[in-house]
Specification:
By secondary structure, this protein is of the alpha/beta class. It has a single domain, classed as NAD(P)-binding Rossmann-like Domain (Rossmann fold), CATH 3.40.50.720. Helix content is about 40%, strand content about 15%. The protein contains eight helices and seven strands; from the N terminus they run E-H-E-H-E-H-E-H-E-H-H-E-H-H-E. A seven-stranded parallel beta sheet has the order 3-2-1-4-5-6-7, with helices on both faces. Helix 1 links the parallel strand 1 and strand 2. It starts with a strand and ends in a 7-residue tail after the last strand. The relative contact order is 0.15. The protein binds nicotinamide-adenine-dinucleotide (NAD).
């Protein structure tokens, strides 16, 4: 039985991916800030044996303890989905311009998106070094905002997700000889609480996205469509794919 750990697992994309992994037969640990929400989400997954844990990815000790708890209960983690993230906008969705971005805000966004992803990748690698698994997989989440300079997000978010892309490639190179693949998904606008929080004070009705006309497919995406990409990257069949970025963006950016 393959085991997956998903950070940000009660969020829109994280939970859809947890559901998809569970449907595909994986045992899933859902990690997020709130223990009750994580446990509730795990209880709602199809199949048996899933668990929810509290894990703040910005807290190095919490990440170490979280991996330990999951491996003790479920066994070695095969698939890490590092999905925890923040866009860092205010509660009214207002975007922070360059000159308004304080050092504190920059650090907060980087602590979750970049450093948190690093802590999780490092911890996963340390566990796999001690106890190797077949078909190890790491999936990170960047953003089309990193590739395009953001639309609804601003500099700190775009830069932190750019860091995720570079980290993904470096980890892919370093962990390749252990049979572990490391790939990023770069979603475009996906209908989740984060997108709703980032749409700004005067969103166009029913779109959740301010630049819908830039999307060739003419709509925003669903969390399930990102989950399907994650399911592929997690699969054994994806063994020859590493260091790549899978765009799930409705054509917003074409390489
Ligand atoms: N929704 C989009 O349009 C979109 C586009 C591109 C990239 N993304 C990325 O996809 C990922 C998932 O986002 P989503 O849209 O599902 O957003 P979401 O807000 O629904 O989910 C994010 C989850 O991360 C969790 N989280 C935040 N800080 C955390 C921390 N310190 N430790 C642990 N968990 C923490 C939140 O509690 C939440 O459950 C994020 O990395 C996001 O940047 C989303």
């Amino acid at each position: 039985m393959r085991v997956a750990l998903i950070t940000g697992g009660t969020g829109g994309i994280g939970l859809a991916t947890a559901r998809r992994f569970a449907q595909d037969g994986l045992v899933v640990a859902i990690a997020d800030l709130d223990l009750t929400a994580a446990q509730h989400a795990a209880d709602g997954l199809p199949g048996h044996g899933h668990m929810g844990i509290a894990m703040d990815v910005t807290d190095e000790n919490a990440v170490v303890a979280g991996f330990e708890a999951v491996e003790t209960r479920l066994g070695p983690i095969h698939v890490l989905g590092a999905f925890a993230g923040t866009v860092g906008n205010g509660p009214d969705g207002r975007q922070t311009t360059l000159t308004e971005t304080t050092a504190d805000l920059w650090d907060k966004i980087f602590a979750i998106n970049a450093r948190g992803t690093f802590f999780c990748i490092r911890e996963y690698a340390a566990h796999r070094k001690a106890k190797p698994v077949e078909h190890g997989r790491i999936i990170t989440v960047s953003s089309s905002g990193a590739q395009l300079g953001g639309y609804q997000s601003k500099s700190a978010y775009a830069a932190s997700k750019g860091a995720v892309l570079s980290l993904t490639k470096a980890a892919a190179r370093e962990l390749a000889s252990w049979g572990i693949t490391v790939n990023a998904i770069a979603p475009g606008p996906i209908d989740t609480p984060m997108l709703r929080a980032s749409r700004g004070p005067a969103p166009p009705p029913d779109t959740n996205y301010n630049a819908l006309d830039l999307l060739p497919l003419g709509r925003i995406g669903t969390p399930e469509e990102v989950a399907a990409a994650a399911a592929y990257l997690a699969s054994i069949e994806a063994a020859f794919v590493t260091g790549s970025t899978l765009d799930v963006n409705g054509g917003l950016r074409m390489q």
